[in-house]
Amino acid sequence: MEKYFLVNTTQNLLLTASDAPLLTVRPLGLGYTVFMGLNPDPAYSNFHLSSSYPILVSQLMSFLSTGGVKAQNNLQTGQTLLFEKQRQILTPSENKLNTSYIVLDEVGFYETPRIYSASLIDPGESDLNPKNLSGVEDESRFDASLEQVEVERDLRLPAIILVLIIILVEAAAYKMRGVI
Fold first, then answer.
1. Domain regions of the chain by residue span
2. What is the pLDDT of residue 59?
3. What is the DSSP code string of 33-57?
4. Among 45, 48, 110, 179, which is 20 to 30 Å from 159 by CA?
């Protein structure tokens, strides 16, 4: 180990067990560093294998990425970002704009002092439940039985190539014997 972070357990502590820190958050640059004092060894803990672990990670991501409704980073295309003052914004197409607002008309990352992502995510598009599907036929109309079909194949070209290879091998054998 070349580098590690010192954990101050009196500050930014989210979870403890027996006076030992289990979850600590610390600001670092434009983001945060998270210490999870969970031992991945199954002899000590299998929490990382439980169904609660993804919920913890999801809630932790939500906690770190939002400071309320105004601080949401994941936005849909078409939304407008408003800023208190004019600032430089780098768009997904690498254009630099100086403005106090921007319409998120491209998919990708918009960089200000913070990074915002714009995507096409739409709850209607993400819904996999069938709704009034037109043109869909009932599966009972399809026959999945096997059926033998004769297929004619032209084997002239592979046969010619095979004969030429045999002739070349024979010629090489004669040459090695010294006949040619």
1. 1-65, 70-126
2. 79
3. EEEE-----TTT--GGGSTHHHHHH
4. 179
